[in-house]
Amino acid sequence: MSPYAPDERVMVSPRYMAGAGDRIADVIGPLIHLFGWKAEHDAGNGDVSIDSPDGSVFVDFVPLHPLGRWCKVVHHEPHWEVVFSRQAPLEAVAAFTQALPQLLGDDRRAEQIPVTREPLDQIAALNGWSAGGSSFVSPDRYCRIEHTPEADDAWKVEHVYFENDPLATFTQSTPEHLVGNFFAHLATPVPVERAFADIPLSTRYEHSGLITPVRGAAINPQVAHALAQLWRPHRR
Question: Angle of helix 90-97 relative to helix 24-33, nearest 10 degrees?
């Protein structure tokens, strides 16, 4: 029996085990409200289409996509596409989409929305991921990012529990610093907040992630979670 009610708020780590979460506003809201990107909303199915002011970038959010690929970013000249699945944590997806205006030269929020410029191998090393050939693997071996420059999907982020549904794919010509921004927010050990019911079943019942309560903690929930990480036996 679960110690948490379905709507109870909890802290979860690692992020790639937490599911998407419910903060879709962080993914598309800043583009619309801070940078003036044009948005069209289909009230019937919830689809949202967003265009950059110069028409060079499109962001489509399709919550009812039959394959769970609910967020797609397309850039023209050069052409590249990025697809995020419903299992990709929205914190990492938002790190990618919120960096798009700077890619187009709009630096108005650069101080509030930092974009990492570190190479992926440094991001991996800082967060305890191991490098092997063309891939980076999480400390628990559940998640990896694979780089295959000659493939259509030059970057692929995979999860062992969702083998047929990558968390994210990035085609050739996708700027590597944007891939790095996503990766940095995916690989960080900093936990994310979720409703317990939104956490994937594999994380809830196979004890592959760490879940701690938000309410009732004697100290800050993030600090309590960090201490629980220290006390938890190391898993591989």
Answer: 20
For residue range 94-140, list pLDDT tens digits in order: 999 999 999 999 999 888 898 998 999 999 999 999 998 889 999 99
Return the domain boundaries, the chain: 19-187
Residue pointed to by tokens 């979860």: 12
Question: For 69, what's the count of Cα atoms within 13 Å in the CB-facing half-sphere?
Answer: 13
Across 35-73, b (16+ Cβ under 10 Å) vs e yields bebebeeeeeeebbbbbbeeeebbbbbbeebeebbbbbb
How do residues 189-229 score in pLDDT, each as one tens digit? Answer: 999 999 999 999 888 887 778 999 988 666 677 777 666 66
CA angle 189, 190, 195 (to 5 degrees): 115
Instruction: Specify the pTM.
Output: 0.90
The number of CA neighbours under 13 Å toward the Cβ of 175 is: 20
Residue with tokens 């948005």: 39
User: Facing residues of 144 across strands?
Assistant: 137, 158
